[in-house]
Amino acid sequence: MTTPISSNSETVEAKRQNFNITPEQEAKLNWLRDAIAAPNTKETRLVKLVID
């Protein structure tokens, strides 16, 4: 197994850029994820798509 070279904050920023998510959107997704007890952010985004 290899160890990632980037730090956690770099990884989070790269993921945010890949999906064009602003920090505010990320905070809302995290809140929604907690509220619906979604297993991951992908599931949260799917639920958000349905309710929007």
List the helices and strands and how they pair.
Blueprint: H1 8-18, H2 23-36, H3 41-51
Helix pairs in contact: 2-3
Task: Explain this structure.
69% of the residues lie in helices and 0% in strands. The protein contains 3 helices and no strands. The model has no long low-confidence stretch (mean pLDDT 74).
Q: Which keywords apply here?
A:
single chain; 52 residues; 69% helix; globular
Outline of this structure?
The chain is an all-alpha fold and 52 residues long.
Reading the helices and strands in chain order gives HHH
Can you give the mean pLDDT?
Answer: 74
For the record, give the distance between the C-alpha atoms at the N and C termini, rounded to a whole number.
40 Å
* Sheet having the most strands: none
Strand runs, count:
0
Shape: globular
Give the DSSP E fraction (strand runs of 2 or more residues).
under 5%
**Gyration radius, in Å:** 13 Å
- Contiguous runs where pLDDT drops below 50 for at least 5 residues: none
| Count of DSSP H/I helices | 3
The chain-level structural class is: mainly alpha
* Estimated helix fraction: 55-70%
